Amino acid sequence: MRYVGLVCALVAVGAMAGCEANRSKKTASPAPVSGTFGDDLAFLKAHTDVLVLSSGPAQVAVVPAYQGRVMTSSADGAAGASFGWINRELIASGETGPHMNAFGGEDRFWMGPEGGQFAIFFAKGKEFKFEDWQTPAVIDTEPFDVTSKSATEATFKKTTQLTNYSGTTFNLQIDRAVRLLDAKAMTAALGVEVPASVKAVAYETDNKITNTGTEAWKKETGLLSIWILGMFIPSDATTIVIPFQAGADSELGPKVNDAYFGKVPADRLIVKDDVLFFSGDGKYRSKIGLSPARAKSVAGSYDAAGKVLTLVQYTKPAGATDYVNSMWEMQEAPYAGDVVNSYNDGPATPGAKPMGPFYELETSSPAAALKPGESLSHVHRTFHLQGAEADLDKIAQALLGVSLEEIKTAL
Known about the structure:
Beta-galactosidase, Chain A, domain 5
């Protein structure tokens, strides 16, 4: 979720006032639907086709009808914890609605920009308000075509056309692969050994867009980006951790953008010299983002109750500075967007029902200035590690630069 993302009629009902009135961490919110991977898999299979990738106890559920989306995963087979948030109510209804259909899922393919003069979520001449906001069908309700399937990998393809707010039309092909990573690949990606005693599931999505038209995509008329969002089950013991480049604001800009829905309260966001801690409790609607000058290629979260360390890695090309801006306004800097985002769900107004609740870890590709036939790719990896804190602590320190004790006591 960049500026509004998965929210209902938030702009119309005064989201900022809701955030101020709902500041307390003790705000009540409904308990998330939780259970085993087997429970969630059975539910999904009752409503849609599901591709299951597996290697021993590591399993991933992928739904072609939801754009090849990774809905959930397990590090311990059918009886293991299900890590992805799934919108059971919406899926079970069999209905789709306007604006957006939040089916859930740990890794979904989206594209940007959402708002601004080059927006693909607003038609030309419309106002930047919720009533006019519409997620393109190709990343909302249209299925992706399955092009291959093996025990550990599934690939998808979609040919489509998008028109932005300024009237520029993009002809493109989307290619997406969901790939389960074995222990060797996981170790290579993390750069640290994962002990055999730690239960683990790791996968990556390799996402590519290709300009299939006859005209080059130019900054002056708008560019697209790949945007991957993961929705996870929150808890009072979950803290999001994002390391970033240290340095003076005068050289690198602000450490974090924390004003998407009103400034995040100090008890929910702690920003240090090179790392931040953000609440993932699903009780207070808030959002943060990091610029290309600040963002590193990793983010994560730790659920101290379940002893689950979640890590996200992504492609961050060296020297890339142009990232699409998704703010709902005519923008002075349309390519000054964020690279990494995190969202914590919660009621939009006091007493309102939250969308989930869930929390999100999101990454984006640079803006795609593609000539005809050229492509841009963005790889997004997700790791769920569950085990003894002594084992997980070493991994957290190596990847996030902080200990589990620092994470647990930060907020």
